[in-house]
Amino acid sequence: MTFKELQLHKTILRAVAELGYNSPTAVQVKTIPVVLEGFDVISSAQTGTGKTAAFALPILQKLLKNQDVAKRRKIIRAIVISPTRELAEQINQDFKAYAKYTNLRTTVVYGGTAIEPQIDRIKKGIDILIATPGRLLDLYKREKVNLSYIETLVIDEADLMLDMGFINDVNKIVKITRLQKQILLFSATMPQKVIDLTTSVLQEPITIKIAATSSAAKNVKQQLYYVPKRKKMELCLHLLRKLTSKKANSSKNNILIFRRTKFGVDKLEKTLKRNGYQVVSFHGDKTQNARQEALNKFKNNEVNILIATDVASRGIDITDLDIVINFDMPNIPETYVHRIGRTGRAGKSGNAYSLCSRDEKSYVKSIQNLLNKAIPVETEHPYPLEAKPDDKPKKRTGSKYKKGRKSTASKKKKKRWY
Ligand code: AMP
C-alpha cells in the first residue's frame, strides 16, 4: 500500500515524502480511509505506530476545502485533546510538518504557561487546535475559542487522560462542541472507564486494533533480572557500569530508566548523580520549563540517562534509544510493551533490562501472557533473588514403591533431631 493509494492530496503527499515516510504504517492503512469516510473510530494504536499521522493526514485532507479562507476569518474545525503538554507539542509539530504545503494552520495550547500568547495565536486564525483539556475549557470560558464548528474531535491517549482525572473535562468538551461531529478516540489500553466513555460519546464507531506486542518487541533484546527490592539500586548501578561510561566525550548508550513513582524518580536521580552519571529526570511535578530543559539535554546528547515515570514519558518522541531499563516492573502489561517499544525502532536493535523483585513476580506473569512468550531471565548477576523457604522445591515424599514400608508406629517413634 502506498500513501497515494490512500487518496491523499498531492500537497500532503509531498510533505509525507519529504519526511521520508515510504509507505503507510498498519494503523495508517486502516484508519485513514475510515476517517475520510466520516466514521467515528476507536483505536488501540500506541505511540510509535504512526498513529498521529493516522488521524492528522485525513483531518488535513478533509479541511483542505477551507484552506483558502482569509487568515482572520478562519474557524477552528478540528480539535485534538491530549493529556500532556509534551504530547500536545509533539502532535502540533507533526501537524505543522504534514500541513507544510497547505494553507491550513494549527496551534497548540496547554496549561502551566501564559494564556495571552495562546489567545493571540488563536485570534490570528487557525483551522486546527491541539490542546490539553483544562486549558481548552479555560479558553472556552473566556470566550476565546469558538467550538461550534468542530467537524472532527480527536481524543488522544484516552486511558491516560482518564487516569489523570480528566474525565469530566473530556465529557464537557464533547458536549460543547458541535453535535454532528466525528470523534476519533485513541487509547493504548481499554480499561472499563474508556469503554464507558466510548459507548457514551461515540456513534457506531469502527474499532481498529493494532497489535503492538509483536511489532514493538521484535527488535528488542529483553532480559529479566530477579533481584531483592532493597538491592535494586545496586543492581541498577552494576548494569550502568557495564552499559555506559561516565567519561566526557566517550560514546555512550542512550538510556531511559522507568520508575513507577515521582518519588522513585527523584531518589534514583540523586543516587546516579552521586555516582557520577549524567542524568536528567522527567515527571509530572516538574514545571514545563524544567521538563523541556531535561528533554533538550537528553535529545542534544548533553546527558545520556533519562529517568521518567510512564505518565510523564508518554507521547514524547525520543528516538535513538539504545536501552530501556525497567527499574520497577509496570503493573499493566501493555505498559511494558509500550516502554520497551521505545527502543529497537526503525530497524535498529535495542535492549530492555527489567528488574523484578519478589512482589512484582505476578506482573511478569501477566506481561508474559500478553507477549505470549517468556522473557529470558539473566541469572548471572551479583544480587540474585534467593528463594524463600516456601519457594523451595517440596521435599520428596518418597517413591511409591517405598510407600507404606514403615508402620505408622515406627514413623512416630522416629523423632528427627536435625
Ligand atoms: P507516532 O506513533 O505518531 O508517535 O509516530 C511515531 C514515529 O513514526 C514518529 O516519529 C513519526 O514521524 C514516524 N512515522 C509516522 N508514520 C510513518 C510512516 N508511514 N513511515 C515512517 N515513519 C513514520
What are the SSEs and their pairings?
Elements: H1 10-18, H2 26-37, E1 41-43, H3 51-63, E2 78-81, H4 85-98, E3 106-109, H5 116-123, E4 128-131, H6 133-141, E5 152-155, H7 158-163, H8 167-176, E6 182-186, H9 192-201, E7 206-208, H10 212-217, E8 220-226, H11 232-243, E9 255-258, H12 262-274, E10 279-282, H13 288-299, E11 305-308, H14 310-313, E12 323-326, H15 333-340, E13 350-356, H16 361-371, H17 408-413
Parallel strand pairs: 1-6, 1-7, 2-4, 2-5, 3-4, 5-6, 8-13, 9-11, 9-12, 10-11, 12-13
Helix pairs in contact: 2-3, 3-4, 6-8, 15-16
The structure holds adenosine monophosphate.
Primary descriptors:
418 residues; alpha/beta; Rossmann fold; 2 domains; seven-stranded parallel β-sheet; six-stranded parallel β-sheet; 13 strands; 39% helix; 14% strand; disordered C terminus; binds adenosine monophosphate
Structure description:
The protein has two domains: 4-210, Rossmann fold (3-Layer(aba) Sandwich), CATH 3.40.50; 214-371, 3-Layer(aba) Sandwich (Rossmann fold), CATH 3.40.50. It has helices at residues 10-18, 26-37, 51-63, 85-98, 116-123, 133-141, 158-163, 167-176, 192-201, 212-217, 232-243, 262-274, 288-299, 310-313, 333-340, 361-371, 408-413; strands at 41-43, 78-81, 106-109, 128-131, 152-155, 182-186, 206-208, 220-226, 255-258, 279-282, 305-308, 323-326, 350-356. It starts with 9 loop residues before the first helix and ends in a 5-residue tail after the last helix. The protein is α/β, with parallel strands linked by helices. The model is unreliable at 413-418 (pLDDT under 50). It is built from 17 helices and 13 strands. The chain binds adenosine monophosphate. Adenosine monophosphate binds at residues 21, 24-25, 28, 47-53, 317.
